[in-house]
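A reminder from the course coordinator: this example appears on the midterm review sheet, so study it carefully.

Given structure:
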């Protein structure tokens, strides 16, 4: 039996109230802990894209995908864990930085290709985008200065290559712009 690993799912769902709640409830009922969940509109009207990261074994991953497909508002689901992809996370980090330590904090930000988006007399707010490892690395070097506050968006993932994107949208039914029902 295989061991649970972090799995990444991409799902296209109807952009309607309650869809996110139903996805979270589905996973809660099956005792899965969500590591990361990001959802937002797509370039297609009435369709949102959900990126979900959670720990599951191979059998659990197949069941999650199947259960997501059973939801009435789900249009398309794929486990992209082992697919070539680009993954990014965004974080805003507020760190203590007075006049004596500000230059040192800014140098560390430069190394990680992060940038200061707000400067206050006793703190800096830093923006960083990248892989989870990159964000964790910056957090580690900033901890000694004193992290005041931090927020992360959650992982967003896109598979590589044009073919994947085109194939993905062939399976999404045409939408009616009038009431959002399948046409």
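Designed residues:
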């Amino acid at each position: 039996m295989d061991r649970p690993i972090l799995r990444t799912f991409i799902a296209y769902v109807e952009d309607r109230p309650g869809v996110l709640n139903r996805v979270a409830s589905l996973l809660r009922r099956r005792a899965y802990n969500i590591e990361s969940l990001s959802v937002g509109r797509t370039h297609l009207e009435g369709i949102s894209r959900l990126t979900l990261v959670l720990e599951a074994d191979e059998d659990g991953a197949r069941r999650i995908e199947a259960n997501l497909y059973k939801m009435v508002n789900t249009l398309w689901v794929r486990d992209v864990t082992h697919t070539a992809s680009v993954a990014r996370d965004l974080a805003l980090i507020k760190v203590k930085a007075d006049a004596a330590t500000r230059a040192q904090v800014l140098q560390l930000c430069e190394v990680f290709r992060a940038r200061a988006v707000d400067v206050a007399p006793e703190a800096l707010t830093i923006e960083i985008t990248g892989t989870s490892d990159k964000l964790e690395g910056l957090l580690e070097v900033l901890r000694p200065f004193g992290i005041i506050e931090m927020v992360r968006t959650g992982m967003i993932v896109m598979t590589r290559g044009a073919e994947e994107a085109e194939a993905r949208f062939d399976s999404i039914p045409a939408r009616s712009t009038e009431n959002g029902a399948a046409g």
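Helices lie at 19-29, 58-70, 102-111, 132-142, 162-170. The chain has five helices and nine strands.
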